[in-house]
Amino acid sequence: MRPRPFLLHRPNTLKEASELLYSHEDAKPLAGGQSLIPMMKLRIYSPEEIVMIGHLPEMQPGVKQEGSTIVINSMTTHDMVHHNELISEYLPVLSEAAAAIADQQIRNRGTIGGNIAHGDPSTNLSAALLALDAKVLASGKDGQREIPIDEFFLDLFTTALEPGEIITGFKVDIPKNSRQKFMKITRSDTAFPLAFVAVNIQLSDGVVKDARIGLGVAAPTPIRATEAEEYLKNKQLNQETILKTAEMATKDLEPPGDVHASPEYRKNLLNVLMKRCLNSLLEEVKQ
């Protein structure tokens, strides 16, 4: 079946782009194209109109520190996220997640905004941003707003973005005394991941003072393992607590099944990744 033709718009301003998306219900924004184009090829989306946004000044790549906060513009590519010094120093889980996206060609074109905008549960950066308690910066016809990442993913391919809203960037408060790790399992670099985990824990004298754990391909949306987070708080990080945390993070999960992995297999992978992440952080503490 031949793809349906679409109308291409190239607005001059962010406001114009928002108005086009708001007034054309079937329109989709296009930045780097590494998320939208594959979805169009798979017929997940078949938009009648596409609004180009990658050239807009407000969207341009950039990472900066504002006091105790890191701000990342939405057109920042995965490769830039991986190699940025501020992100590597303060938000290493995000750098690791970006480095694990597909191959170098895709990392050169794909953007952090596009990675998140579709609400795809298999995108690496979603779990990392959940672990970092990020805020999504969105701009629409009613102005700008900040959306807590915990409130952003609503359902499969469904987000809290209002009609016409565009992601312009992300804000992340710099974690204190933080240890972070991202790990995933995939059949090949360019295949959809089977499972992935992002961990961010705050340690003091070996005791976990706070924890945020993001899980990917574990549900219709990227999710947090909140029960496991609560269990881990105020406990010593050791083999006993690691095993219990992994058990609590995965015991009630009902991950999707497909031709690549059954729900049971995917659940086991998430448990294994959870233990590997925490064991890796434990080894860092011991050094």
CATH structural architecture of the largest domain: 2-Layer Sandwich
Described by strand count, sense and barrel closure, the largest sheet is: 5 strands, antiparallel
CATH topological fold name of the largest domain: Uridine Diphospho-n-acetylenolpyruvylglucosamine Reductase, domain 3
Radius of gyration: 19 Å
Distance between the termini: 58 Å
**Tally of helical runs:** 11
Principal-axis shape equals globular
Low-confidence stretches: none
In short:
The protein contains eleven helices and 15 strands.
Keywords:
about 290 residues; alpha+beta; Uridine Diphospho-n-acetylenolpyruvylglucosamine Reductase, domain 3; Enolase-like, domain 1; five-stranded antiparallel β-sheet; 15 strands; globular
Question: Could you characterize the architecture of this molecule?
Answer:
This protein is an alpha+beta fold and 287 residues long. The chain folds into three domains: 7-51; 62-173, Uridine Diphospho-n-acetylenolpyruvylglucosamine Reductase, domain 3 (2-Layer Sandwich); 178-286, Enolase-like, domain 1, CATH 3.30.390. The protein contains eleven helices and 15 strands. The chain has helices at residues 14-23, 36-41, 78-83, 85-90, 92-99, 104-109, 112-117, 124-131, 226-232, 239-250, 263-286, and strands at 7-9, 27-30, 49-52, 63-66, 69-73, 135-140, 143-148, 153-155, 158-159, 166-173, 178-185, 195-204, 207-216, 223-224, 235-236. The strands form four sheets. The chain has a five-stranded antiparallel sheet. A hairpin with a 2-residue loop joins strand 8 (153-155) and strand 9. Helix 9 packs antiparallel against helix 10 (239-250) and helix 10 (239-250) packs antiparallel against helix 11. The radius of gyration is 19 Å and the shape is globular.
